[in-house]
Amino acid sequence: MGMLKEFKEFAMKGSLIDIAVGFVMGAAFNKIVSSFTAGIVSPLVGLLFKSDLKDLKYIIDQGVMDEAGAVTGEVAVLYGDFLTNLIDFIIVAAVMFMMIKAINKTKKKEVPAPVAPKGPSQEELLIQIRDLLAKK
Question: Is the pTM of this model over 0.70?
């Protein structure tokens, strides 16, 4: 029973819930960025290559065409798909950077605690002790 209680305390911590909310928001934001890249960026970049960005590939082995007209056994480097994912990543990273920068600006800067006045140094204490002993 103790382990269940411990797990409940762990799961209900604010930071864990914040991470879960951030994860869900990140997944939703990733879908938005993916659709932006696929629907807007890829066609524009595809104009440069005269094809859809995701369809770009370097064919190493042509493969064989079967009766249905599909190519089987083709070996290719799918660099267009990689470029699309790279663009997605750059957009997400840039937006996250800007969000964190904005959040950090809104945080109050911690004012350092005032330095407590230091007492006398060891030399000053020794001088005081010497002077007190000299008076006796």
Answer: no
